Predict the structure.
Amino acid sequence: MNLDANVSHPDDESLMREIREGSHDAFAVLVNRHSKRFYRIAHRLVFNKDDAEDIAQEAFLRLWHRRELWDPARGAKFTTWFYRVVINLCFDHKRKKRPSDRTENLEPVDVNPGQDAQLDARRKLALLDGFIRELPPRQQLALNLCFYEGLSHHEAAEIVGVKVKALHSLLMRAKTTLRDKANRYLPGGSV
């Protein structure tokens, strides 16, 4: 890698410039740095570990084979651009799969006496995941980016391709739907 010796941790955009020139080392650094992040969002969108791993791997392979698609002149951060790549692959995957193929068994298999509170919490989380799956895709995406990925509303809006005000509207509708379902289906109405 032709990275400056004073820079022990090059930023993503510097790595992408090296990758565009064919640097396998820069690619390995970028994959190691971000594979968990992009696996996480894929899993939150497709709700299947194997499919999420495949999607993250496919996204990085596409990055390597089509590295010229990242254009530093556009001013987008690498992560913002790559979230879009991963999210588009997730949406393509969901369109191809039947609904029954997308779900995992979220119920705990082994129930030990004395773990009722933990079991109850896991059931509530499984229900919440089910409620999130039923949200429209853009609401689901906004919720995942802001709450599970911890992105700012500005970053999430850029990834979703909407203005911040529209993102707030997506989040508000998602929260309202989730709250209504929690009130309807969960004892005490909370998750």
